[in-house]
Amino acid sequence: MMLVLILALFGASLAKESYLKAVLRSPKETLKLYDNFKAEQHLAFDRVEDRLRFRLFRKNAEMVADENSVDEETAEFALNFFSTMTESEQISYRGLNVTGHNKNAKPALRSSGEDAAPASKLWTNEGKVTAVENQGRCGSCWTWGAVGGLETRYAEMSGVLRKFAEQEYLDCVYEGSRDGCNGGWPDDCYKYSANNGGRLASSADYAYTQRDGSCQGSRKPDAMIAAKIRGVRKVGSTEKANIEALASGSLSVAFEVTDKFQQYSKGILKDTTCTGRPNHAVTAVGYTEDYVLVKNSWGNTWGDSGYVKFARNHHNCNLWDYSSYPVLASTGASDNGGNDEATNYHADDEDDSGPAPDPDCVDSYSPCYESWCDTDWIVEDYCQKTCGNCGGNDGDCLPGTIRCDDGVCRHEHMC
After folding, report:
1. Among 196, 238, 235, 236, which Cα is nearest to 217's?
2. Which residues does the chain have with pLDDT short of 70?
3. Which residues lie closer than 8 Å to 333 by C-beta, 6 or more apart?
4. 202-226 residue pLDDT tens
5. Which of 94, 244, 232, 210 is nearest to 150 (CA)?
6. What is the pLDDT of residues 350-386, one digit of tens each?
């Protein structure tokens, strides 16, 4: 069975944090882990390509194991869909073109600033952030950062959460000059809208396609009903200035993606591996005294349900240096279109809607796969949540699981 040999080879006394390292010391078990990963990710390669993908997988697995073994690390890392990608494939999920753009100026010293902002502000918890989506293999992050920087501020002004169209920016901002999937700059989106009557379509009317097409902006309804985009405001390149601006609404922000960032899973990230310039645009959607909450555009299977928590009092790979948001002017009209879907992510909120499983019941290794759940040792020590063992040996089993003959809660087909 999967991983049983590891127990025999390395002993039951292995520390849980060394689990992945133990797997990687066994070529046979590493291959099994790789095969399970491909099944989970629905990947299939021919024989030649499979050798390349396996080498990439093993390299990333080693990095994940190393990072999760650092005692001082406050974030956790896991294998994900980036783990078998080449560098060029990974780059296609970014798209920020920083060429010709300088860091924002530092703000002048003022008596007011961050002290005037609340200690914590999480727009996700106020229903003013839309659901996480995936930009896919189109370097359009600059459109997602720009739209994210708009949505919360429009919701604050209009009282309506509107999902605006990244596709309009992708098609129209650089129409006739270059392919938007090859990169761009968020501020250019706000300038495009300002130069076209302050408009932007909704994603319902102008759906995202993962490719740059011909501009349809003039043919699509304008969803900027209660306010128009009149320009762009740059945020001073300090953490204090960013927090002050973030207290009034979301921000388009930029930073450098690293290998470590790509494998982020959860916790507070304090990345010290960055060396160059920003290459990815995202949306800052809140903060606490400990972290800044950022919404990514890589889907909700990446990171912390699509989000990352960047450590406060840290440079975060240039996170504070290129922030901006749109200048909005009220039209005096009411947006009666109703709210679009809000994110279901609630940072640091406790779900008090009803009985919940033991909060200590989590997978102590990530990722876990259901195919491992026929091994009691794995169920009990590593994959409690995935294998439906949060009920332990006492009390009721979780929904979707039953108590097997050995007393352990599992999915029925695994008894």
Report:
1. 196
2. 1-18, 109-115, 349-360, 364-382, 391-401, 406-415
3. 225, 226
4. 999 999 999 999 999 999 999 999 9
5. 232
6. 333 333 445 557 776 656 666 566 555 566 666 777 7
β-strand pairing of 264-269 with 307-311: parallel
Residue boundaries of the structural domains of the chain: 4-72, 89-330, 370-414
The secondary structure element, H or E, covering residue 121 is: strand 121-122
Active site residue 141: yes
* List of residues 6+ apart from 266 with CB closer than 8 A: 75, 76, 303, 304
- Residue ranges of E strands in 264-333: 264-269, 280-287, 291-295, 307-311, 324-330
Residue 191 confidence (pLDDT): 98
| Closest to 45 measured CA to CA, from 84, 100, 98 | 84
Residue 181 is among the residues annotated as catalytic for this protein: no
**CB of 117 closer than 8 Å to CB of 128:** no
Active-site residue, selected from the candidate residues 68, 134, 242, 296:
296
* Separation between Cα atoms, residue 308 and residue 183, nearest integer Å: 22
Catalytic site residue from 280, 316, 383, 397: 280
- Please confirm whether the linkage preceding 367 is cis (ω < 30° from 0): yes
Q: Which of 138, 141, 215, 387 is catalytic?
A: 141
Residue type, 131: A
The whole-angstrom separation of Cα 313 and Cα 243 is: 11
**Is there a catalytic annotation at residue 242?**
no
Q: What CATH number belongs to 89-330?
A: 3.90.70.10
307 SS3 class: strand
Residue type, 343: T
What is the distance between the alpha carbons of residues 205 and 162, in angstroms, rounded to a whole number? 12
Which token pair is 21?
């390292």
pLDDT for the residue numbered 363: 72
